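User: My notes are a mess, but here's the protein and zinc ion's SMILES. Can you give me a structure?
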Amino acid sequence: MIEQKSDAGISCIERTEMDVSKLAEKVALDAGHGGRDYGAVYENRREKDDNLKLVQDVGDVLEQNGVDVMYTRTSDVYHTPYERAMAANNEGADYFVSLHRNAFPEPNQASGVESFIYRQGGDGEKMAKAINENMESLGFVNRGVEERPNLVVLKRTQMPAVLVQAGYLDSLEDNRLFDNNYEGIVQAIAQGILDSILSQQPYYKVQVGVFRMESNARKLLEELVGEGFPAYVVFEDGYYKVFAGAFREMDDAVDLEKRLRENGYATVLVKN
Ligand SMILES: [Zn+2]
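Assistant: No problem, the inputs look usable. Here's the predicted complex:
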């Protein structure tokens, strides 16, 4: 028998059988700026490029986890903020997430991650906080969540909306964090979105390992991602837990478990 990877001596959780509806949430991802609008520029770096790459990679992780993703742009084109908001409204998106990088009037004077929302107290705020905290755990300064009711993409969207400033583009320190742990940043943002969606209703997660040491969890995460599995790490009850996928339908989780087991992993199905 293969034992689930662990350095924590945690026993397996019983599998529960339940019929639940499918993960149907649609997330609109908005890569800030584009085309003639470069956003922030620092040395050879243009915000519009960082935003587009980040949006596409975050979108891939969300799609692997069963989320329906729409994009306001998938190439270097310009759309007005109003057009972006309307596109999300017309597609019936459940959440709107705009990804940007920040800039200060003077380079290397400010750093950190910061998120904007229309109004405090809703699902947008929860999502923004989750994303900020995940980014903070990667070394970014957490500058908090701010209300920006006049930003068109927040004001004109009819669903919870968040604008994330994923570090300062004109900060060498933030760019180092961004480039050296890019995959971690993609996961941090995707996970913040996923956790917010999934906290709303029951779902199944496939747990592959439980660790006291974060480095052990990260090692397993890299192994899983390297083999093409949709993996992520959650810090919960004092342990670093490695999961591969979260699903509304138990059958979907069981299919993934089967593939993981064929690859030599011991899995546990966890219902939230
Ligand atoms: Zn921007």
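The first strand starts at residue 5 and ends at 6.
User: Great, I'll file this with my notes.
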